[in-house]
Amino acid sequence: MTRITRRALLGGALAAPAFIQASAHAQPSTVRLALLTPLSGPFARQGELERLGAVLAVEDINRQGGIKALGGARLELSIADAGANVEQVTAAAQRLVADRGLVAGLGAWASSFTLAATEVTERARLPWITLSWADSITERGFHYVIATSPPSSSIIPAALRPLLAMAERAAGKKPATIACINDDTAVNQANMKPLREGGFARLGLNTVMDENFSVPLSDAAPLIQRLRRSRPDLVLLGTTATSDSRLLLQTLTEFGLGQGKVPVIAPSANWGTPEMLRNMGATYLEGVIGVAGNWTSKQQAALNQTLLQRAGEPWLIQDTLSNYGHVLLVADALERAGRADRDALMQALLATDTTEGPAKLFLGERLRFEPNGRRANPVPAVYQWKNGRPLTVLPEADAEAELSWPRPG
């Protein structure tokens, strides 16, 4: 296999559409970015994946000579633990914004964490970039927030529309009925709200079952019995706890519905983690379809392989890819802003419109933003577990594998 050097990797990935020459006055020797992500508590693994992406990107930018428009200034990360709840996130954000030397911030991971953190960072006029999904992140009238993922209200419908068309081509029949099993957590209920309020109907899907359960789930058999009686064309599973996910998949298999016999859609990047494979095994996961804000792409196979080797992970997921891309986005905006100033940087971030540089780390061809900071026309990632790996199946231009869908009868 041809070895891709880091210089070759970043040569294209860091190319900005335009550079502003460094001004004659003295430029900072370092530009400092905050990273706020859970590094302790139940979400520490996801936080570590976010940290990994940001650290790798900073290393690459600095090896390539730093921020050219700032005289080669090096990027530096100030990393803070978001902890396990919004109170800890708020306290950590308050400590971060006390540092006036920070130019921008990244992360928080969970939407509830990001909402809490940005209440603090907005008052400090600190530009903040996140992969969190919640619509409200960019609907509060804030001026210093950038969100790169599709919002909760549209990510599942936007994923289902082409998925249903692909399923019709694969099986010769368009899926017409859906069964939903969700835990009662805020995130899954928020994901379901637009679907219940006409989203499924607009997709041509009739809901034959819609059940919620309290975490943790002690017995999945009654739910799966009802599911089997409803005979859906596909199932949507909204779970937060890995133990609940495992119990539901095991019970589906016991009832003869698992391993792709009835397509299962799981709207979460967490369903595609290496930990999910270790906890469940490839047999139970086979055929499960996940939805995320970002995933790997066949168009960036060389880039992904190089990052993968350095990351030491079996594969890359949304958390690492997006945070690598977020650092590239800040670097690109700094080059165009020409100074390490929060307001100038935020203006440059909002003015981003590129198919190069940071756009290479996200699905879809173009990276640009609406005035409220949400990515314009964001493309959701759809992946499917195949032989122990979660491979991108949509968008088709980025697909690493074809969708597997059972034929009726």
UniProtKB/TrEMBL annotation:
Family: Belongs to the leucine-binding protein family.
Pfam families per UniProt: Peripla_BP_6
Signal peptide limits: 1-26
Domain Leucine-binding protein: 30-388
The species this protein was found in: Pseudoroseomonas cervicalis ATCC 49957
Keywords of the record: Amino-acid transport, Signal, Transport
Protein name: Tat pathway signal sequence domain protein
Biological processes annotated in GO: amino acid transport
Entry superkingdom: Bacteria
